[in-house]
Amino acid sequence: MNTSVFQLATWNVNSLKVRLPHVLQWLQTNPVDVLCLQELKLTDDKFPVAELRQAGYQSFFAGQKTYNGVAILVRDGNSVDATSLVANNPFYTDEQKRLLALTVNGVRVVCGYFPNGQAPDSEKFIYKLAWLEALHRWLEEELKHTTQLALLGDYNIAPEDRDVHDPAAWVGQNLVSPQERAHFSGLQNLGLIDVFRQFDQPEKSYSWWDYRMMGFRRNHGLRIDLILLTPSLAEHCTACTIDKTPRAWEQPSDHAPVIATVRPD
DNA sequence: ATGGCTTGCACCGCAAGA
Asked: Which nucleotide is nearest to A43 (CA to C1')?
């Protein structure tokens, strides 16, 4: 990594068209080097390249109509290898745009919008498990070529019960099922580290809150937006925080951004 | 209490999210 301080962030914006003002405002006070976005909900021709360019960011994206869509924004001054851009998992044929990889400052950045899974007895859950299995195989391959990899995104998995506001109420549901958590453990077994848990954190830290029933005000949330780093990056990670600020803004995304700071040497 | 918000798309309600 050829930089002194490197900040990476992830944010599920739930429509970039609606949330662009929030993204621009947030970047003004949080000028991270890399921002991974999920749920763009727009086609590539509608991506706000010019507005983000004006804000000092280069955009890489893979969108589709109505659903899904992921992007990686890179702040000017960082070193980007544009030929390293990969949309979707080469090991998995997928109509849905959920994965984007780009090498920035020598770090393999992977932005993911993991499937929701709907319910453990649904077709979408089957898809989620297959998608997770294929992700594992792809990352295993990527890790043969680099020691510096960052997987950021909306995992749609709450790793542990402490990442769930009411674990008892969530038993048997997607996002917390043993099958999904086993896949999460599989990613950890590749050496990837959930850096949020490397640091002391407030009790009941979440990154998503239901729009309904005053979920945010009551802190009824889940921690499902995560940053996993390989050991060589994680050992230089000095902070990982969830920024709840924009969740309290008017017309917010239901997710909050998560930021990791890496300081080599 | 199986709803409750929010978004996009296409209509005058729906699917999908988590």
From this structure: B8
Nucleotide nearest A14 (Cα, C1'): B7
| Chain B: bases < 7 Å from a protein Cβ | 4-9, 16-18
Would you call A10 helix, strand, or coil by DSSP? strand
Contact between the CB of A89 and strand B at under 7 Å: no
Q: Cβ(A51)–Cβ(A59) under 8 Å?
A: no
Model pLDDT, residue A264: 75
Q: Using the C1' atom of nucleotide B9, identify the protein residue whose alpha carbon is closest.
A: A66
One-letter identity of residue A260: A
Judged by C1' against the alpha carbon of A116, the nearest nucleotide is B18
Query: Residue A258: is it exposed, middle or buried by C-beta count within 10 angstroms (0-12/13-18/19+)?
Result: buried
A217 C-beta less than 7 Å away from strand B? no
Report pLDDT for A265.
Answer: 66
Confidence (pLDDT) at A4: 85
The pLDDT, as a whole number, for residue A2 is 64
Whether the full predicted model's pTM is greater than 0.85, yes or no, is yes
d(CA A247, CA A13): 10
Q: Please list the ranges in chain A whose pLDDT falls under 50.
A: none
How many CB atoms within 10 Å of residue A135?
22
- The reported pLDDT for the residue numbered A206 is 98
